[in-house]
Amino acid sequence: MNDDFHYIVSRRGFLIAATGAAVSASLRPARASTVDERRIRVAPSQARLSGPGGPQTAVWAYDRTVPGPALRLRQGEPIRITVENELDEDTTVHWHGIRLPNAMDGVPGLTQKPIKPGENFVYEFTPPDAGTFWYHPHANSLVQLGRGLAGALIVEEAEPVAVDRDLLWLLQDWRLAADGQIAGGFGSMMDASMSGRLGNAVTINGAAQAALGVRAGERVRLRLANAALARMMALRFEGHRPVVVAIDGQPCEPHDPEGGRLVLAPAMRIDIVLDMQGDPGSRHAVIDDFYDGLAYALTSLAYDTAPPLRAHSLDEPLALPRNPLPTPVLANAVRQEIVLQGGMMGGGKLAGVGGMMGMGMPGMNGAPAWAINGMSMTGDGHAGMTPQFTLERGASCHLTMRNESAWWHPMHVHGFSLSVLSRNGSPAPHRQWQDTVLMAPKDTIECAFVADNPGDWMLHCHVADHQMAGLMTVFRVT
Questions:
Q1: Which tens digits make up the pLDDT trace of 16-43?
Q2: What dihedral do alpha carbons 211, 214, 219, 222 form, nearest 10°?
Q3: Which of 66, 313, 321, 394 is positioned for an S-S bond with 148, CB 3.0–4.6 A?
């Protein structure tokens, strides 16, 4: 590992807000006497990614902070967010994981006109689901996300969850030059056709702090969100037993992660509950060991010396209340399949494939590096993209995704959450619903959803280089 391959950590805590909210399955704004009004400004800024004594790094930011402000919303209550663009280029905001009206989805050309420099756009929606979500640009997204544009969006449950603290770790991966500035070279051939733009510095909530201070006996809900361009993570909490209670904002059956590792691909979120059972004054590392031979300490849990908060762990159920997701009927579901092809050593042939080449980033030799069902759509989404398939509103869809490549792909669906049915023929455990499904090389995953949300919706890999170089498609709900 290079000497300049360093990792920077911090935390930002949030106390639970004990609020009441009416749960609504509707995707349209609910009738309410008031609407929650917010404003977000997109502009260049500065951040000390290496800590208080380090250099200022030029970034792009929401409201001048990296990450952007954590937006806390109420389930079933309408929100109106005005986004002001002070960049020198177009932008949009995609509210990742929120089941919202198509016109609010933030895909330039496909669902809205881009927000031009000096202009603004008003996003209005009512979040039907409680959970951990996030927001980011969908215009020149490789560069804009890579320069810092990301923020958490948390929708509170109608009833507070029985924990002592509710914390957020928004993880970002930066490729920094020797002077501490963001390195150039976005969209290189190597990144586009292999694992994507991996960085050399990881931050938690954008600021530098060596450890998370905890107290023996407390119960913490920790919301993990991976906002990196390409970095996969596999987190181990040494000496502790994390219990997964939600994936991509959707509650699941509480369970221990496989092998004790929380695998978190770009765009994924995992909510865990941690009972702090270490001794007062002790310290326990949080290790990321996804990449062979490149394990590192992301941060640590540092216990204060105070006596335990309680003698025994809280005797409260861990399961979160389910969200109002429609259940697909598999007996009469429409079957669709997508096949991921391409990349270095991928086995997928791209010669002669068609494609929507507008707004493209370079792949291999200036051509697309990836395809879905033989078709390469490059860029961020734009008018004129031909749908891969069309579904009637209300139909259940059984979707099979096959990864023929040699690379990992977190596949993200807009506007819906997918019930994961099986992976490589084995039933998926824990009643998982996800909007971003990580596919290992040669994986086949079966999932299902109800097409209850009309519009043209993107389905793409959330390794930004892969999306920009062709690993993107669109489906239509009429």
A1: 333 333 333 334 444 445 899 999 999 9
A2: -20
A3: 66
